Amino acid sequence: MEIHTYEKVWLALSLVLIVGFIATIAYGASAGPGIDMIDDKGGTVDPATLDEHPKFGDPGIEKTGENQYDVYVVARQFVFEPGTSEPLRVPEGSTVTFHVTAADVIHGFEVVGTNANTMAIPGQVAEFTVEFDEAGEYGILCNEYCGSGHHVMEGTILVMEQSEFDSWYEQQEQQTGGEN
Ligand SMILES: [Cu+2]
Where would you say this protein principally sits, based on its record (predicted)? Predict the structure, then answer.
């Protein structure tokens, strides 16, 4: 049987394509690009009693160590708490672990212009860690269609200078009796 040269070239090219597609999937599914399934480490939570949850009942930032913070965020139609009505404040030079969940439907939580991006799913807690090197302002967007107000669902992350953040944090602690 004779195979024409062009035929061979096309066969070879389609093989390369198939191997390429499989390679991108394998790379995406490995830990390489830092993509995780949401429940891998964050755990679960009952969305019906979120308001009584020790962390998500009063979501916000919590100091856990030297330059280390935990941030709890609740996404609900059509706000981020915190983030929308008040900016989500973090200090410059800090390492922040986000815990993000949703109260009603599936939302997205994307820090615009960065690779910090997760789905927020009712009942699931998405956990990821971000380092904030420079003071500045970042946008937060919902990137999963969540209803009629989806296009206005946004928030702000304010990366503050340490001293500024410290005085805000202290004031915050006093107001909430140290539970935040
Ligand atoms: Cu949305």
Answer: other
Per-residue pLDDT 10s for the chain (180 aa) are 888 999 999 999 999 999 999 999 888 887 667 777 776 677 888 888 888 888 898 898 998 888 899 999 999 999 999 999 999 999 999 999 999 999 999 999 999 988 889 999 999 999 989 999 888 999 999 999 999 999 999 999 999 999 999 999 988 888 765 444
Cα(32)–Cα(157) distance, rounded to whole angstroms?
Answer: 27
User: Domain 40-176's class?
Assistant: mainly beta
- How far apart are the CA of 173 and the centre of ligand 1, in A? 31
Determine if the pTM surpasses 0.70.
Answer: yes
Angle ∠(123,76,81) on CA atoms, nearest 5: 100
